[in-house]
Structure formats: C-alpha cells, structure tokens
C-alpha cells in the first residue's frame, strides 16, 4: 500500500513539470499563431477564460479540503504511533528499570545481571519492532551489537511478533526471580506478592504498546479513499494546465507580461504543492522504516533508552548506602528553605 502511494506521489510530482511546460508551450504556440488579442479564436475569449478560472477555483477548494483531511489523518496516525506506541513502550521500559534498580541495587554480578538482562531485552524489543515493520528477518546485526545472544537468536528466528515475544521472556524471568529455585538465581525478588504483579503489568503494557504500533503499520489506508483523492488532484492539475494555457496566451497577446508571469508561477506552484502534500502524507503512514525524514530515529531512540535507564542503575548504585549514614542532606535542605523564605 505504501509503495503504491509513494509511486503515485512520485508520478504526480513528475507530471507537475509536464503540466507547466505543456501549458507554456501551448500558450506560446497560440500567441505565435494568433499574433494579437483580436485574432484569438472564440474559444479563448474573455468569458471562456473567466469560466475556466472560476471552475479551477472550485476544484482547488475541494482539493485543498480533501488534502487537509488526508494530512490530518496521516499526522494523527504518526503521532499516535510515536506517543501511544513508542512513548508507551519507552515509559514502561523506564518504570521497569526504575523498579529493577530499586529491588536489585547491589554492585555485584548477580544484581548487575538482572538489571542488564531486562534492560537489554527492553531495547531489543524496540529494535525488533522496527524489523517487523520493515519485514526484516535478519537478526545478525542485533547479535553483533550485543542486544541479542546466540541462543536467543535461535529461539526468536522462526517466531512471529519477535518484539512481543521478548516481553514474554521478561515476564517469565520476573516470575523466576520471584518464585524460582534459589540455586538457579530465583526467589530473590523482594516482596514478590506485590512486586511481581506490578512488574509483570509493565511487561504487558510494553507488549501492548508494540502491538498497537504495529497495528497501524499493518492497517492500510482504504484504497477507495486514496483513489478518490488521487482523481481529484489529477483533475485539478489538468484544469490548472488548461486554464493557465488560456490565461497565458491571452496575456501574451495583450502584452500583459506580469499576468503571464504570475500564471506561470501558478501552474508550477499548485500542482507541485499538491503532489508534495500527497508524498508527505504517504511518508507518514509507516514511520518505522527509518529511511526518510518523516521516519522515527530508530538508532537515536535505542541509544537514549540505554543511556536513560543505565542512568537509573548508576544513580541507585552510587546512593544505595547514603540513607544508612545519617541525613546531613536534610539539614542542608532545611537551611536552604529558610533562606528562601
């Protein structure tokens, strides 16, 4: 669907120059043939030019109205994927990392393994979401960058919805931390009766965010709507070419070069803008491809996710013993508040 939309947009964009060149050439031919305004045929009279201009303005109004709705729908879809999809995934990831850093705060290999594994899986699910949207089944790059291990790749490779499967891993791992065998690193989660459901709820929210984002990618814009929109844009561009031909020809015959110049700008500007708006709208339908300027910055998002959540971990590690050594910070805060008052 998106390839079709981009193809149509490119075709319409190329034909805009054809409309402009054809209109100017036809106007020059008519001017060369007629020579003066009195020699123009009746079909190019003042009343005909006025009728064409009025008809063009009516078609342009409808075109702008329909393109406005189309761009609004595309922008709302784009923002929903960013805010309700990736934003919800990012928020659930941050909340989970915050809780994990609080429950496993020690600077030792055991707690560090828990923190890094859940963080790595979280960012991995974000990367896999993009791969699913692009239909990319190659996971070697994720192994090379350290987000995916070899045994995990073998498990994920044949499975669908790989990004959501990762959150099933995270939920199972949290259950293991809460009630698993002690000799295998289980039963380490504090207050498991309350903490395990809270953490698993965040896993469910993250999985739902990925599913909601991909539902937009997998749902096509109705073909009939796009066909009608394309037909209206094509009708406008053709009418613009015809009207500009008549107006430019009459202006040249009357030696009114300002009017001719303005009409040349119109025949270039309006078809180009309408084709460009179609192209922009089509580009926002799937911003998970990371190949155009309207797509989400996949690599930047993953980097910020890792940096932000590792900041949670480092913050807890550096202050984990502060509350056991008295409360001098409270005295400082009290003194500062007194100065402010």
Short description:
The protein is built from 11 helices and no strands. The chain is mainly α. It has one domain.
What number of domains?
1
Order of helices and strands: HHHHHHHHHHH
Indicate the radius of gyration in whole angstroms: 31 Å
Largest sheet, if any? none
Helix and strand content put the structural class at mainly alpha
Share of helical residues: over 70%
Number of strands: 0
Please explain how this structure is put together:
This protein has 341 residues and is an all-alpha fold. It has one domain. It contains eleven helices and no strands. It has helices at residues 2-34, 46-103, 109-134, 140-144, 150-156, 162-179, 192-218, 223-253, 257-283, 298-319, 328-340. The longest helix is centred in the N-terminal third of the chain and has 58 residues, at 46-103.
